[in-house]
Predict the 3D structure of the following.
Amino acid sequence: MSKRLAMLEKMTAAGSADPFAWYGLALEYRTLGRIDEAIQTFHTLRDRDPSYVPMYLMAAQTLDRAGRRDEARTWIGQGIAQAKAKGDDHALSELSSLLAELGG
C-alpha cells in the first residue's frame, strides 16, 4: 500500500470533513485501478459535500472508463448544476465538453 493511500484512508476513516481528502482518496483508488472503490468514494464525497465541483468531472471520467456512461452523464448533469451555482466557468466548460464527447 502506498504511503499516500494509507494517509488518505486514515484521514477519511477519522471522519475528515475536508472534501479534498475524500477527492484525493478517490483519485488514488482510480490511479491504482481500484475503480469500484474510487466510484464509491466519489459517492461518499457527493453525499458529504455535493458542492465540491472538481469531483464531478473525475467521477464521470471514471464511470465512463468503467463502461457506465449513463451514470457518467448523470454526474455531469449534477456537476453542471453545481458549477453554474458557483459561477465556475472553467468547470462548466470541462463538464460540457465531456458531456458532448459522451453524446449527452
The two ends are 37 Å apart (CA to CA).
